[in-house]
Amino acid sequence: MNDKEPFVELDLTISDNAREWQRRARTFAREHALPLGHELDVMSAEDAVAPGSPYFEFLATARSEGFLHLTAPPEFGGLGLSRLEEYLVLEELATGDAGLAASLFIAPLVYQFVYNFGSPRLVDELARPFFTGQRPEWSSCFAITDSRHGSDMMAAHTPSLAVPGGDLIAREDGDGWVLSGRKAPWASCTATATHALVCCTLDSSNLARGGIAVVPLDLDGVTKGEPLDKLGLRPMNQASLSFADVRIPKDHLLIGEDAYGMAMHATHTVASVSMALLAFGTGRAAYEGALRYTAERVQGGKPLHEHQATQLRLFSMFTKLEAARALTRATYVHNYELAAAGKVGSLAHSCAAKVFATETAFEVCDAASQLCGARATDRRGLRFSDGDVFYPEKLLRDAKSFKIADGENTLLALIGAAHLG
């Protein structure tokens, strides 16, 4: 295994604690996330989420290592990392496997929302048991998109882009709410989730007049669709959700109609930059793999990286990635710190980071595949002299998926443009 530092850390103020967590995350990513990501990638979508799947063991190991508690409330065992330290950890995890790193983002999401917006009863019922480890089998999904509404759901808080509609209707009924309708198959981690954050329509005249509810997925009337068999990010399972007159208590609607637009705006400021971070990890993995491959592969009588054409291509990959890292990391720290203080960060920067980082990751993964030639198309990967394995074909598929995930890039650019200034 190559233990050389994979990049030069330009921030000289990084604490020893941050570097230690970074090293721990790098080891976890190499030893667990990377090999399991490939294993899940080649499994059928059904087998990857079936009982006994190694996916569940991964979540359990991540919990024991502290990677499900990065942002947990301090009284529930949070690690107390700064946002920059958190970013360093997550970048390492994403470089191991971005789909599994996304799962670690999403698994605590319901319980974090409940802690931030739920009633004291709901905090004791859901947030406390998850974060304290009383219910280690619990995990989340976030069901945003509808069958007839995809990326435009992300624009519901942007007046110039908002549209009417909504396929999942929530109607008030006595002391609770009744949900009827369907969410699209793109809801991440749905196949393995026990609880969902669900975006629902309260006023069908405008997608911005909605709500966010927490729904236990074992309630009568909730049906999960088949796991989605998809191109990339396969270790992060996805599936649809159907609701047939599903009743939830009134306090399970965490965000109501009047606050929904602002809540989605605030959520978007951290969601898009989080996607940028995950995509950057994919690009970084492709660059580091290509760098090693060109050092070992002899072509034309000398290692590939001694050819000037190769050097120029590697340097272009390096430059693009460093630019993407700088924008993503600065935006991540800024927006998450403001969110923790109850303020709203820059949506324009978050959209810019997502669009730029995902486009960069795809370009870098494509360049890595070109450098590796025909060997890059082998789904079994490229084995280095020390036994490590590089999977450029998988990374290219993952990078393509990021250009659509959590909002297609062209629409995200329009959302960002609408929020300039």
UniProtKB/TrEMBL annotation:
Family indicated by similarity: Belongs to the acyl-CoA dehydrogenase family.
- Which keywords does UniProt give here? FAD, Flavoprotein, Oxidoreductase
Instruction: Cite the InterPro entries for this sequence.
Output: Acyl-CoA_dehydrogenase, Acyl-CoA_Oxase/DH_mid-dom, Acyl-CoA_Oxase/DH_mid-dom_sf, AcylCo_DH-like_C, AcylCo_DH/oxidase_C, AcylCoA_DH/ox_N, AcylCoA_DH/ox_N_sf, AcylCoA_DH/oxidase_NM_dom_sf
Name all Acyl-CoA dehydrogenase/oxidase C-terminal domain ranges: 273-420
Q: Name one Pfam family in it.
A: Acyl-CoA_dh_N
Where the record annotates domain Acyl-CoA dehydrogenase/oxidase N-terminal, the positions are 16-130
**Which molecular function GO terms apply here?**
oxidoreductase activity
Co-factor(s):
FAD
- Which major enzyme category is it? oxidoreductase
Q: What is this protein called?
A: Acyl-CoA dehydrogenase family protein
Organism name = Amycolatopsis speibonae
Note the Gene3D superfamilies from the entry.
Answer: Acyl-CoA dehydrogenase/oxidase, N-terminal domain (1.10.540.10), Butyryl-CoA Dehydrogenase, subunit A, domain 2 (2.40.110.10), Butyryl-CoA Dehydrogenase, subunit A, domain 3 (1.20.140.10)
